[in-house]
Structures are given as structure tokens and as C-alpha cells.
Amino acid sequence: MPGHEMASWTVLAGPAGMPPEIVEAIDRTASQAIADPAVRSRLEATGTVPELDSSPAMTRAFLDRQFELYRDVVQRIGLRLE
Q1: Do 73 and 1 touch, CB atoms closer than 8 A?
Q2: InterPro entries in the record, alphabetically (predicted)?
């Protein structure tokens, strides 16, 4: 569809209502791992572009934008999931 680009992405997600201290601990640990040159190198070798400057709020905003984008595409092509 003109005006749309399809890409894959991966995020860490947990259940709704997860305690903020757990979210922060997971975010901190994931950020430390992604900052490790060996981890980055392995991710990049798979074609993954790790986001160094990310946060749970940024991830939520990204997902909201993606859902809105694909909602529009689904409506425009008349796709129905039942």
C-alpha cells in the first residue's frame, strides 16, 4: 500500500499491571545487556538494530503508533479477523 512500510520489531513486554519496580529492573538489565559490545554485535549480525536510548514509556508510545498504523491498513483493505 502506498505510504506504508512494513518492518519487523521486537520488544520486551510483560503482563498488564506489572509493578513499576519490576518494569524498571527489567529495563535496566536489558539496557545493560544491549550496551555490551558482544551482545550488540550478535544482535546486529542477525539484522537487528538495538535501540540504546529506550524506555518503557518510549516502547509504549512506539507500540501505540504501530497499532494505529496497522489499524488503518486493516480497515482500508477490509481485513476481518474472527
Answers
A1: yes
A2: Bug_dom1 (IPR042100)
The owner of cell 518503557 is 56
Residue the block writes with cell 551482545: 39
Rounded to whole angstroms, how far apart are CA atoms 81 and 10?
A: 23
Q: Write out the three cell numbers for 76.
A: 482500508
**SS3 (DSSP) at 76:** helix
Can you list the positions of beta strands (E) in 35-77?
A: none
Per-residue pLDDT of the chain (82 residues; tens, 9 = 90+): 677 677 788 888 899 999 999 999 999 999 999 999 999 999 999 988 888 888 999 999 998 988 888 888 788 888 876 6
Cα–Cα distance between 13 and 35 in angstroms, integer?
A: 19
